[in-house]
Structures are given as structure tokens and as C-alpha cells.
Amino acid sequence: MDQENKVANEEGDIECYYGKDMEERIYSQPLLTKRHNTTSQIAIVGANACPVESLDYEHFMYIVDIYKIRENLANIVALSKLFGFEIIGIRNAGVRMGLAVTTALVLMHVLEELAIFGSILCVSAGFVVGKEGPMVHTGACIASLIGQGGSRKYHLTWRWLRYFKNDRDRRDLITCGAAAGVASAFRAPVGGVLFALEEAASWWRSALLWRTFFTTAVVAIVLRAFIQLCSTGTCGLFGEGGLIMYDVSAAKVAYSVPDILAVILLGVIGGIFGSLYNYLVDKVLRTYSIINEKGPAVKILLVVTISLLTSICSYGLPWFATCIPCPIDTTESCPNTDLSGNYKSFQCPPNHYNDLASLFLNTNDDAIRNLLSTSTTKEFHISSLFIFFIAIYCLGVITYGIAIPSGLFIPVILAGAGYGRLIGRLFDPITKLDVGLFALLGAASFLGGTMRMTVSLCVILLELTNDLLLLPLVMLVLLISKTVGDMFNHGVYDQIVKLKGLPYMEAHAEPYMKHLVARDVVSGPLITFSGVEKVGNILHALKTTGHNGFPVIDEPPFADAPELCGLVLRSHLLVLLKGKIFSRDRVLSGDEVVHRISKFDFAKAGSGKGVKLEDLDIKDEEMDMYVDLHPITNTSPYTVVETMSLAKAAVLFRQLGLRHMCVVPKSQGRPPIVGILTRHDFLPEHILGLYPHIRLRK
User: With bands split at pLDDT 50, 70 and 90, how would you rate the model's confidence at 28?
Assistant: First the structure.
């Protein structure tokens, strides 16, 4: 049931692992090929990589309450049937791999404080990076801490936090944290909600909508308070602006047929440049992974090299720009001697400014403001815009992936605004749109070509610029750029998920799945437990396998014939074994669990904080004793018949957000379970490894 270390390349073609040089495979296979886990606590559906548990396993901690109700109503036949074993309220589904090496949840939990301070230092140092990535990371980390019951490290262990230690609340909190990160980075509360809907949440429900909305509303209020505090200029260059970061609402929005054609061209260019950007980022990340394996010193050297290259471009390229006379009708001082502004006097005579220096020798936010500035048609020369676009495009590609916290939004907006304004200058004789609006549409096209998002990007851009009149053109350019980009490759987030080798499940079933049935891909050997099992058998299975879920089979005398009782999680088995609720006879002893083990012991543990196998102290004489598994068994797991189409099973698995799906036999007289399907069993590399030639069938 374990996945092999070698997994397929971006297109899932299994043949790439055989007969090719290792050097070639480095640039095609996932980076985390030596990962111990094959399916993990992250449920990845399409582009949505979100640390969650299955929807099939929600509130296990309340099982004890149900047992108490059952005990109290034991003398009432009708209610005892209602609260009996048949309707125990646990929803169990687990990961089959036993090690606690979770992919995204661990990555999100590590060094969250460094993400904050590292982002501050990197953005202020002038790297071509954005702060939105670390902000989303930070918000998700804070939410994860709350969702795992707090942190002793940060002295946040209040008792009320333990009520969030269940899968659904943790998933919702992390989604809210991601939305808060976007809202704070772009001062776009509604955009943060839609970003969580479109990109962060694997499964959306109406209750989560108002929770994310409430979170981003609080973010907006706190932002407004700090903006008011910074209005006196005490916060420096990075504290400028209000809730609207790049206000272009003063520009007149009027367009005709030539303008529509120019916008369509922008969308096509954005899709092409975006797909090329994603391709280059993929190759650069793979190259950096090879370089970074040589040690921390090489990582630091790589950062220093990129820093020097960025500085050389920022201070060297403006020397090649031609000084431009200051405009007569400007309301700003020209040349500008402040640290920010449109008109830098870099090596220019009096009453002249260096337009390229006005873009490079500013913060990234000020550079975007300069590019989006309206009623300044000839402020930037065409050659300067071209040089700036090429430089930012290349620096954005090579900077992403070095050992600094960084985001993709700001570099993409910078590059897109650069070529958007360039197109606006070229179309100036025949267009009515302001070049600043062309810059905004260029940024939208490049975002659509790289991120492949539509609704959230549209709202974020409108909240950033406060120009609702441009909504139709923004929608058009986003749709075109996304469509063109999808013709070449996947979005950048999709590619990074595949690059990391994370278990990735598409939103739709692959065409070749319709030629297979569920039993064709289940892996063996299948390890099952009896309803009342020997301690030694359980301990041996936990030691020799990495599975996180085990079928429980009831046999005589507890059932007339062998039947599937349900599924039990490894983590719950460890808690039960640690409690040592054993008996020398093979009898039911479920009620004893209620009195000896707290319901919160079965709650979701934080990363690496659950009971481990080495924590158990099982004596030799206890190995032959029995333990009742019924109290911790999910008696209503999702099941499919073995002859169900694999395509239908994949759609069901994805839509229900499962992590385990039991495959039962079609006919009687056979063992009550054929196997278990997990996310790994639906991955192309697993299926194509079993049936290499099935891809050719349509």
C-alpha cells in the first residue's frame, strides 16, 4: 500500500523513470521524491493545497459523550438503538502512511516567525519579491497554532483553545488565516475572501464564507487604525497610502473598438509571457534544489549573488537611460529629491529626470504607483519601459526560490504593468485609454497568465486601484490570458505543488480511469483487525507498516459471520494502547474507555505532538491480552463496490473530500473487504505504474 519513491513528472508520464539519465530526471521528477509519506494531512484538489483532514472524519472527541448517552439510556430500548454502536458519531478516515511526516502542515508550521522578519528584510532590501506570500504563510501558521490547541513555545495554551482541535475547525481556521494574509498584504478584504474560496480552500461551505469575511473585516479595521497612525509619516516609505494602494479612479475610462483590440492583444501577450514565466520558474526551482543540497553556505552565497545582481541592475541600468526634461504642467517637484517619487534626478542636469531610475530606485510599491500613474503619457520612454520589463521579468524568475521568504504577486504586477504601459505607449495614437490604465490591464493579464485565477484577481485589482469602471476590461483580459496560458502549461501554484511531489488530485477523473474498476488499483497486502484484537497483533502491525487506517472486522462470537465493522486510525490505536485498557479475556470493554481516557486525548494533535510508537511501554505479559477496538472505530465508513468505475470512484472521493474509501466485494461468501482506496491510488503515477499502456486508450 506504500507509494514508491519515484513518481511521475509534470505530465504524469511513467516512462520517464526508465532508461533515462539521472541528470535528465532531475528536471522532470518532483523534488520530494524521498518523502516518507505518500498521502498526507493535506488534501489537495486541483490547485487547492490546504492542510485539512478528511470530511469523513470530523469530531471524534464527541464519541465519549455518545457512549455516556448510550450508558445512561441502556434501559430504554428505543433510545438505546438510537445511540448504540450503529450510529456512533465518529467519522474516521486516516492516512495510510504511519510516520508523522506531514507535508504542507509541517511546512506551514516551521519558522513562522522567520517568515515575518525575513519578509520585512527582503522587501526593504530591494529584492524583486512580494510580501503577500509570507503574509499568507504567517496567517496560516497563526491559525494552525490555534487549531492545534495553542503552543507551549509561545505560551498560548489556554484551555478554550482545545475546542478547536478537530479537523473541520482547524481547516476553517487555516483558510481564514490565508484570507487574512491576502487582505493585509493588498488591503483587499473582499479579495482575501475570494482568494480563500478560489485558491486556498479545498472544500467550501457557506459557514466558512462568513468566517473568512469576519476575519478579513477585522483585518481591514486593524489596517485602518495603523494607516491612521502612519498618516503623519512616522512609518517611513512602506507606510504610505491608504486602504487604496494604487488609486487610479481619477482617470477617464472611455474605450472603443481599437481599445478592445489592444486589450485582447494584452491578454494574449499576458498568457504567453505567463506560461513562459511558469516554465522558467519550474526550471529555476529545480536548479536551485540541486544547488541548495550542497549546504547552508551555498544557499547564502546564492542569496548574495542574486542580491548583487539586483543591485547592479537597479543602479547600473539607469546609466543607460536618456535624461528627460521635466514636464511643465506637473504638480510634483521635478526633479524629486525625496526617497520616493516619479522624477529621480539620477545623474541628470537641472530640470531633467531619469525615468528608469524613477522605477528602479524606488520601493516596489512606489514603482507600481509610478507605472499606474495617469495623465502622464510620456513620463516614461518606450526604451526605458522595455528595459525595465525585461529586467524585472528575469529578476523575478531567478529571485523566486532562493532562501528568502517571498511572494509572486508583486514581481508579476511590476512586470505586467511595465509591458502594459509599453503597449499603451505604442497604441497611444489610436487609443483613448490612459497609459496608466494600460499598465493596470497589463498587470491583470500577467497575473492571469501566471496564477490562472480569475474572480479573486479581478476583485483584488479593483480594490487595489479603486476603479470599478474598468471592471469589464479587467474581466476580459483575465479570461483571455488564463485561456491562452492554459494552452501551454498549468498555473504557477499547480506547478509548484507538482514540483514538490505532493499528492495531487485533479478536479476531474482522467479519461483512462473509465477503463478500470475500483479493485484494479487497490494495493495489498491488506491488514485488518478483529473487533477485539490482541495487543501484540496491533503492536506488530503498527511497527511493520506505515498505514494510518486499518479495517476492523467483526467475527464470531461478536457477529454471526465476518462483517466489516469500520475503520480505525493509527493515532487512536496509539492513544488506546497507551491507556492500557486491556483484558485477559476476549470480551467487549468499550465502556471502560469512557472512564479511563479523556475525550480530548483523541482530539487532533499538533504537528509531531501526538502519541508515538516509542512512547508506548507494553510489557511482555500484556502482549497476549486483548483490547476492544469498537469504541474508536468509525462504524460508517464510505464504501464502494469493487466493480464501480474508477472514474466514478475518483469523482466521489474528490467531492466528499475523503482520505479512505473502503472497497467491498460484490458477491457474498468472500472476505468483507477487498481493499482501501486512498489519494495515492488515484494518482497517475500509481495507475500508470500498474497499467503502463492504458494511457493510449481513450
Answer: low
CA–CA dist 30, 32 (Å, integer): 6
- Domain 257-499 adopts which CATH fold? Clc chloride channel (1.10.3080)
pLDDT band at 72 (very low <50, low <70, confident <90, very high): very low
Half-sphere exposure of 681 (CA within 13 A, CB side): 29
Contacts of 157 (CB under 8 A, 6+ apart): 149, 150, 151
**Residue 583: which of 605, 591, 575 has the closest Cα?**
591
Higher pLDDT, 405 or 673: 673
Q: What is the DSSP string of 523-587?
A: -S----EESEEEHHHHHHHHHH---SEEEEEE-TTSSSS-EEEEEEEHHHHHHHHHHT--BSSS-
- Per domain, the residue ranges of the chain are 19-95+512-696, 104-239, 257-499
Mean confidence (pLDDT) of the chain: 78
Is 257-499 in the same CATH topology as 19-95+512-696?
no
CB contact at 8 A, 96 and 66: no
Determine the distance from the C-alpha atom of residue 100 to the mean position of all C-alpha atoms in its chain, rounded to a whole number. 19
* Whether the predicted pLDDT of 99 surpasses 50: no
Q: How many CB atoms lie within 10 A of CB 66?
A: 18
CA atoms within 13 A on the CB side of 487: 10
Count Cβ atoms below 10 Å from residue 657 Cβ, excluding itself: 18
Contact 61/599 with Cβ under 8 angstroms? yes
Alpha carbons 94 and 678: distance in angstroms, whole number: 9
Write down how long the chain is. Answer: 698
Which of the two residues, 250 and 356, has the higher pLDDT score? 356
Residue position matching grid coordinates 520585512: 120
Q: What is the mean pLDDT of residues 603-613?
A: 64
pLDDT digits (tens, 9 = 90+) for 428-481: 888 888 999 999 999 999 999 999 999 999 999 999 998 888 999 999 999 999
C-alpha 439/C-alpha 420 separation (Å) is 4
DSSP-derived letter for residue 666 is S
pLDDT score at 287: 93
Asked if 16 contacts 28 with a C-beta cutoff of 8 angstroms, the reply is yes
pLDDT at position 58 is 42
Buried b or exposed e, range 327-354, using 16+ CB within 10 angstroms:
beeeeeebbbeeebbbbbbbebeeebbb
Q: Output the 3-class SS for 447-488.
A: HHHHHCCCHHHHHHHHHHHCCHHHHHHHHHHHHHHHHHHHCC
Q: Which CATH superfamily is domain 19-95+512-696 in?
A: CBS-domain (3.10.580.10)
